[in-house]
Amino acid sequence: MALPFLVLYLTRALAIAPSRAALALTVYGIASFAAMPVAGRLTDHFGPLTIIKISLLFSGVSLLIYPLARNFASILVITFLWGVLSESVRPPSLSIISDATTAARRKPAFALNRLAINLGMSIGPAIGGILAHISFRLLFFIDGATSIVASMVVLLAPWPPISPASSRVSALSASELGGAEELGRELEADSIEPLAPSRPVADLRAFRDPHMLYFLAAVVPVQIVFFQVTSTLPLFLVRYLRLHESVYGLVFTVNTLIIVALEVPLNTVTARWVHHRTLALGAILYAIGFGSFGLVTRVPGIVACVVVWTFGEMIFMPGSAAYASEIAPPARRGEYMGLYTMSFSIAFSAGPWIGAQILQRWGSHILWAAAFASGSFSALLLTRIPAAEQS
Q: Which residues of 141-179 are buried (b: 16+ CB within 10 A; e: fewer)?
């Protein structure tokens, strides 16, 4: 609820200059970047449920005390703490989904997780807008309270034991195990040559894993394209095409409705597709969808572009999370998911600035051509990712 209204709160309620208020968002992004790998390592050490409970509880507390900060320095400090605590929930959330599912079910599981996130993002800002109209302080108090309630739910819920270091082989029947072994031999025979001559044992660290580093280098260009949604796309629609602001709202409506209706069944159908083809397809749909904005001027064409990149999003997002979880050693899955989520922080920090510079200097046609090129480059790199180990 609170984050979308942070700049409005700082400028209207506290009369802070817009440029300084925007700095608070930058600090939040830096906090997110710093939190991801640390939260991932802590997840592996203490377990995902512990980190989720701590993150929800203390991020809620930070929201409750946020309105007490009155000078700009204290606002930046508490914003940084809020960002670290709030964003630390992401790596353990992805890790626990990975640990609770088999490889064949991870894409639909991550799609279901994204469904929950999109439902929350469709409801939260709407409620937040009502609360902000009544009182910005009430907005922070209610948002903080919901996080604390969520931590209590996680604390009291009867969770089955989930051990990332344990094998699920014992849960397989003999026929399933034989099928898995046969599939493994087929994958080994058909897989693309690995980027490194050999893969170390299961304690491999994410920052030294060439497979993971190559994967991250491959996904960041298309992630940068994705974050044009909240930066250059509204400028393009309103300032360059001179359309009403409601058209930008329509972008989110179309995107969310398609995701809610189709993402889980789509990923159920594509659950057994090989990763390099799935991710390359998602990236190229991103490229086509965003690149086509340079060819349209009216609302029907804009909606068509949104539909195309939404299908790319539905394929790419769950697929990339599933791949990151499957190349991770089970005992270090939190660390890998932390590094994976950190790539989004990098793209979030760099993407809007890069897009704005291109739009300002060379115009919208060059911007969307660059988006097409960036997404296509990711697609090309993703065709070369090594096969993931199925676990």
A: bbbbebbbebbeebeeeeeeeeebeeeeeeeeeeeeeee
